[in-house]
Amino acid sequence: MTTLTRILPADRIIRLQLVMIAVVLALFSLTLGARFFSLGNFQSIATQLPVLGMLALGMGLTMLTGGINLSIIASANACSLLMAAIIVAHPDQPLFLLLALLAGLLLAMAIGALNGLLIAVIGVSPILATLGTMTLIGGLNILLSNGTVISGFPPLIQFLGNGDLFGIPVAMLLFLLVALLLWVLLEKTTLGRSIYLMGSNEQATRFSGVNTHRVQITVYILSAVLSWVAALLMMAMFNSAKAGYGESWLLITILASVLGGINPDGGFGRIISLVLALIVLQMLESGLNLLGVSSYLTMALWGAVLILFIALQNRRS
């Protein structure tokens, strides 16, 4: 037992997650064998994880400040619809492709700024502010698109969701790059330290000279930018954009953040833990799909994993 403790990382949450990964691998090795451990299955996991991963990073970032972003899915769909409309209206024109990407990014930043202003300046609670913007944006998405699907994107967009480099999906490489950049931001910059301080004690952080309003607005803009990246990957994977894509992912992004060790009250959480949590969830989903288990039961099992994780974490704290 002492030897095992020395081998595992010192971080309690990461240790729990590694144990969970080992247990999941052991269970599926007994029930599925080579079907689960095939190259195709792991490539499928690596292809599906990035979209949810981008959204979970955006959700987790706001939770570090003690907030939440319920509008992240609606924001992603709004960005994808805007970009898709521009691209489809001007096919095979690289300039308009760049214009579409820029328009989507600016829309995401505007949504993030709106959330940040409502929370930081007006003083609306994060859950109510983002619930309001989620409802507003979701309604506009359906109204302006008439609920239709916009499809037919150039090969460059499709390559993001379906291409690979040396057998590794491009979407996965992009997710790992974004996760690394976010880790650097949180661990190595003044803004990152301010985010953790705000989550621990916003009033004390303000008294220490940190412009907490600016930090909050920046966090919600960054969260929305991550939803824009997720929108790009959704467009690439589905080769289409629609107002209702990914609606079931909202609670899963919160689940992944909490399972990743991010304190819902803010102040604590690590990017590597969030990535490990996403791996656990995606492996569970893939294995249960191969077993033919209902998606509803999969959701219930994810909740059970969360409850078990919290129980183990509290027992050792």
UniProtKB/TrEMBL annotation:
It comes from Winslowiella arboricola. Keywords: Cell inner membrane, Cell membrane, Membrane, Transmembrane, Transmembrane helix, Transport. It is a multi-pass membrane protein. One of its GO terms (molecular function) is transmembrane transporter activity. It comes from the Bacteria. InterPro entries: ABC_transp_permease. Pfam families: BPD_transp_2. Its main location: membrane. GO terms for cellular component: plasma membrane. This is ABC transporter permease. The chain crosses the membrane at residues 16-36, 42-61, 68-89, 95-120, 127-145, 165-186, 217-238, 244-262, 267-284, 290-312. Belongs to the binding-protein-dependent transport system permease family. AraH/RbsC subfamily. It is found in: Cell inner membrane.
